[in-house]
Every structure is written in C-alpha cells, then in structure tokens.
Amino acid sequence: MSDESTPIIVHSLPEHAAGMYFFPPYITLAHLFHSPVDWGIPPRRLSNYQFQYVVEGSAEYEIEGHTIVTRRGDLIYHSPYQLHELRKLPGEPYICISILFHFGDSDYPVQRLLGENRLLGNFNGLAIEKKLTQLITHYHQPGLSHHSQCQGLLMELLAELSQWKQELETTTEGQHKIKTKMVLIRNHIAAHFNREMTHHELEELSGLSRNYIIVKFRAAFGVTPFEYLSQVRIERAKELAVQTNMSISEIACAVGYSDVHTFGRMFKSKMGTSLSQFCSALVTD
C-alpha cells in the first residue's frame, strides 16, 4: 500500500538527450544498375537522400555545380533537393549500386554525420562495400525480416561512414599519405590479380619497404597484400565458375595460376573445399 504523503519522483531524460533518437529510414530504392551505352542523368532534384557506389567503370557526377569524377570503389551521396547530374566517361562502362532513402518527417542529421564533402571515400574491398551489396540483396527479397535487415544495414552504413569521416579528420598528414599508399597498393592488386606479382613490384609502386607494406596493409585491411591477392583470385574464380562454362584449368589460368594443381591447393586451403565441390553445392536437382 503506497503512502500518499510520499512524493512520486518522475525521472526524465536530460535536456541534452532530447531529439537524440530518430525514426528508422524508409528505403525507396536499392538496386544494382548496369548503365546503357549512352546513358546519363540530366540535371534533376530528388526528394530523397542518395548513395551512389561505383562497382565498375567510372562516371562524372556534378552536385550543386561541383564536379566529382568517380571510379571503382568510390561512394558519393547527395541530400534531398540538391541539383545533380551524371555523365558517363567516353568509352567507360558504368555499373553502380544506387540507394534512395528518407526519414519521413524526421529531420535526421545525415549531413552532420557525413559532412559537406559529397565524395565519402573509396571502399573497394572493404566492409562498407559488402554492406551495400547485402542491402540491395535483402531489398529484393520479400518479407518483414529482409525489410528490417535493410533498415539495419543502412543505419550501420551511416554509423561506419561517420566513423570513417572522424578517423580521416584526426589522421595526421603523414598517416593519411601512408593510408593513401595502402589504397593504391590494394587497387593495383585488384586490377592486376591475373598475373604474377612480387613484393618488389609493390615496393616500387609505393616507395615503401616490403616489411613496412605488410604491417601497414594488414593494419588498414586486416590481411597482408598477398592474402588480399588470394581473396581477389578466389572471388573471381567463383564468379567464373558460376557464370561461365570454363574448365577449372582455364579458370586457374584466368586468375593468375599457370599450374592448376597449385591453384587447387590454394583454393581448398582458403575455402575448405575444392572449386568443383563448391560448384556442385550450388546445383540442386
């Protein structure tokens, strides 16, 4: 039995916490787009936020009069009602992930999180790229579970991009130069994965020593340069196995191995299964 003379204490949120939480995002569109030969976006304004991630090729984006050349791995964004247009570069393909979203009547501080710079960075092979791919995969699946995962992935992306921005702002000029060189090495490996590569080649490319490259590359991407090379080759081999009728020896050659047995051992050591077993697991009766 309560004592009516005892005052009831109501705990309220501190004043600085007001408005801290927002409604979840509404995802209007999320898809992988293969652009036609003469495709482009004329000047327009959208009522949504937009992420545009370059999967392959390049294009020139213009946002409020500022021109940005985007290439593989680049992620840009623009805010609602910002004037923007896109032009493909001559002779270049353009494949992108495009995501449109908004927060209804909630004034979510996207620009405060991501900053004024519309080019957010290059995320080729990084976790952010994987989340973008996962998001569009879930978007095209029916059911509330997939819908919820889409929203969750988008919020994770906003948080990780904000963290990325903060790290860039607190990075010294020397650290930034080293990180830029690690991205250069990673992109070089991804572009030339189908031929022999040496540590000496990476040293000449970056101007850094072998051991220093290994330490800094692992710190930036979680693997050594040649572990990353193996990852790229494995992913490309899986793509070729699924999408073409190439033999295993042809696939091995296409991803940089002259000896199919060496390729087979590498694939099995990394994946725990042979390439033929991997393909068989994908086929259903």
Automatic annotation (TrEMBL):
Family annotation (Gene3D superfamilies): Homeodomain-like, Jelly Rolls
Annotated signal sequence range: none
Entries under InterPro entries matching the protein: AraC-bd (IPR003313), AraC_XylS_family_regulators (IPR050204), Homeodomain-like_sf (IPR009057), HTH-like (IPR037923), HTH_AraC (IPR018060), HTH_AraC-typ_CS (IPR018062), RmlC-like_jellyroll (IPR014710)
GO MF term set: DNA-binding transcription factor activity; sequence-specific DNA binding
Keyword flag Isomerase: no
Entry keywords, A to Z: Activator, Cytoplasm, DNA-binding, Transcription, Transcription regulation
Domain HTH araC/xylS-type: 183-281
One Pfam family, short name: HTH_18
Protein name listed in UniProt: HTH araC/xylS-type domain-containing protein
